[in-house]
Design a protein that fits this description.
Pathway: Glycerolipid metabolism; triacylglycerol biosynthesis; Lipid metabolism
Family: Belongs to the diacylglycerol acyltransferase family.
Number of strands: 10
Structural class: alpha/beta
Main location: cytoplasm
EC number: 2.3.1.-
GO molecular function, one term: retinol O-fatty-acyltransferase activity
Largest sheet: 7 strands, mixed
Number of domains: 1
Number of helices: 13
Order of helices and strands: HHHHHEEHHEHEHEHHEEHEEEH
Strand order of the largest sheet: 1-10-6-2-5-3-4
């Protein structure tokens, strides 16, 4: 308002230079506000996915069970009935939605870090592929953005290729969360799903497997790149069985976006992590990023560090 008053005063005094200066100040303020708004939208877009990843499944399960005890119990019954009939859909590739994959929120998600996908080789639509993705990081944010959304234009860079990001099968037992994951082309990382996609879903399928899994996530920390491959060769056997090509893929910067507490071997914390990893399939860890309103405080928002995902030439084509 002061800027507008200054410009109006310049008109009354007949000083054109004051008008020009006042307008320049006005445009600079507008641009500054727009920049701040876009930055906040980027933070919100990342936070909504982090909260969905951590809490959506459990929260929806609790709400659904509570609904059974209310007058809306019929809604819960109908959803559970649907769940029974739809139980095996995730194992058959799920229900990908191009509308969800093209949401504007994912572009803000991409720009927050930023995340980019580097194409180094064309992929034939007559073949199927298994991407061996490293590192896991805390949440695999690079894998999600690049292959479960169109934010980095994966469909344009690899036309005719359908990417399926494989994650823990337990996530697909969670109500609502399973629908959210399937809409992005995410599927369970188990043998039945991979067998189906590589043998009964035609060609042009690319299954992205974060090979290191929970064990690799426990080594995730800024400045360190550790790859876990020991006793994890099952995806190679599946590729050989179905004649699929292996594509080694690495995300530089994936380990930089969160900091975590690393427990020493033999400590109680490490024992708890390994027990969960062995019997449940995931390893709980203590991690933190930046705060919602300040980068100086601890919070769930990841640090804005660049993530660059690079896939090499498919191994069989290279040989």
């Amino acid at each position: 308002m002061k800027t507008l008053i200054a410009a109006y005063s310049g008109v009354l005094r007949g000083t054109g230079s004051s008008i020009l200066s006042a307008l320049q100040d006005l445009f600079s303020i507008t641009w500054l506000n727009r920049s701040k708004v876009e930055k906040q939208l980027q933070v919100i877009s990342v936070l909504q996915w982090v909260l969905s990843f951590l809490m959506l499944g459990v929260a929806c399960s609790v709400i659904l069970m509570y609904t059974f005890c209310t007058d809306c119990w019929l809604v819960a019954v109908l959803y559970f009935t649907w769940l029974v009939f739809d139980w095996n859909t995730p194992k058959k590739g799920g229900r990908r939605s191009q509308w969800v994959r093209n949401w504007a929120v994912w572009r803000y998600f991409r720009d927050y870090f930023p995340i980019q996908l580097v194409k180094t080789h064309n992929l034939l639509t007559t073949r199927n592929y298994i991407f061996g993705y490293h590192p896991h990081g805390i949440m695999g944010l690079g894998a999600f953005c690049n292959f479960s959304t169109e934010a980095t234009e994966v469909s344009k860079k690899f036309p005719g290729i359908r990417p399926y990001l494989a994650t823990l099968a337990g996530n697909f037992r969670m109500p609502v969360l399973r629908e959210y994951l399937m809409s992005g082309g995410i599927c369970p990382v188990n043998q039945d799903t991979i067998d189906y996609l590589l043998s009964k879903n035609g060609s042009g399928n690319a299954i992205i497997i974060v090979v290191g899994g929970a064990a690799e996530s426990l080594s995730s920390m800024p400045g360190k790149n550790a790859v876990t491959l020991r006793n994890r060769k099952g995806f190679v056997k599946l590729a050989l069985r179905h004649g699929a090509d292996l594509v080694p893929t690495y995300s530089f910067g994936e380990n930089e976006v969160y900091k975590q507490v690393i427990f020493e071997e033999g400590s109680w914390g490490r024992w708890v992590q390994k027990t969960f990893q062995k019997y449940i399939g995931f390893a709980p860890c203590i991690f933190h990023g930046r705060g919602l309103f300040s980068s100086d405080t601890w919070g769930l928002v990841p640090y804005s560090k660049p993530i660059t995902t690079v896939g090499t030439i498919p191994l069989c084509q290279k040989m």
